[in-house]
Design a protein that fits this description.
Length: 524
Amino acid sequence: RGMADSTRNLIVTFNGKKLEVEIDINDTVEVFKLQLYSVTQVPPEGQKILGLTKGTVLQDETILSSLNIKNGQKLILLGSAEQQDSGTSTPITTTTPSSATTTPITTSATATTTPTTNTNTNNQAQKAEPLDIVFEEDITAWKSSCTRIFFPKEQIKQPAYIAHNPPYRLCYACSTTCHLPNQVKPNLPVSSKFICECRDIPGRDCLFSSRSGSDIEQISGKLKNLVIDDLVKANLEQAKAADKGKIDQMVGRLRGNASHVLIYEQRELQEKARQSVPAEILNLQGKQQILALLQWFKTDFFKWVNQPPCDTCGGSTRGVGGAPATVEEQRWGAGNIELYTCDNCRTFTRFPRYNHPGKLLETRRGRCGEWANCFTLICRALGHPARHVLDFTDHVWTEVYEAETGKWVHCDPCENQYDKPMTYEAGWNKKLNYIFSFAWDHVMDSTKRYTRKWQEVQTRRQMISEESLLVAISQLNTQVMAKLPEPRRAELLKKVQEETQELEQAQLEHVRLQAEELQGRQSG
């Protein structure tokens, strides 16, 4: 997948159990810690990971690819998992919402909650100040009182949290007052309206349940609208905060690809690529040159490899796992070494998944990652604006800017296809989700170029909200364009916007599929 597979399967030992964790080495250490948290419940800040580095402190912002992680690498995780609610009564001390008196209470998911020992507390709660007075002083008083007091029968949009199993939805005040911290987590997505369910949890008493009766009628009219507006605002802030991590994760995942395409601009490498191309193709121009390149690259220059032939006798081989990369292999970006054994002479053959296009000009073999990597370099060497395209459902190809039409055009060297963008959805029956195009000076979400089922595709785009994805792409483009002159940045951003509008418009147009777009995969 991609330019040489960026996924790694790690064996993590935790509390005597071995866990298999799949990572993407384009992610950061912080993302990896969140993955570990999801399967071990050890908070990221409390994790100590052994076997990932030697003698250096592991930084959250470190990109995993810089750690030379091997497939099947064994790690040990040290740390304490967050305690789950097991039904054991746990004494805690809290402050009741209407009194400064601290009262010991007992929380339990199964047993009946022990009544509070300070009877004056309940009396004080029942004599709470009228809500209009409370809210006139501070419309954010919902932070210290259950919203069910103010809106007993009305579902409202508000910050949302969940507790217990099966989960119950809680308002902010109940999540911070009625439950232990390790029993509660944010409820995402946070867009739906609800009534706080704290008092509905079996075996528990919501600490705010006594706040009822005449108080409820004290909030109405303009004051009620102000409170609702503040709750909606807080709900949005919770959503933004939740997506910030996803934005950072997406930027981190794409940054490696955005950095890699810079290698295509090296003049020495471009010269090496030009020397590989036949003279008759060098003499062509524009679209005709690209079509000739595709044909030559597919039939004469590059070779598809599923299992490499035996290095010793040329016989057939079968995969037996992976092997550590040598220093020389690492020099050419081969983090993943596939190992094969010969069925004939029983010797081993190594298949390094090289990620350096200069090396690929020599080896001239691989799968879609190697094909697109090398082909994109050659396009740039011949002066064509070109982008390396990454499909999250496991394929890569190239896009070339067609000067005749002023548009970016699909170009798949593995299939010898030019301008057949519906191939993957219609011919291969791929369930597309995210497709990104990387040029040396910008990044583009180009998914809509390759689908006419956008609504269906959207149901599979669950990694991040569409709004936050725009933020992530904008942040990445800001980094990519940082060293460009301002006029050039403005021009690029304008072109990205025009391309976005073009792809939006394409979704409204009926497209008659070409015959080549209906055929199944030819490579691999």
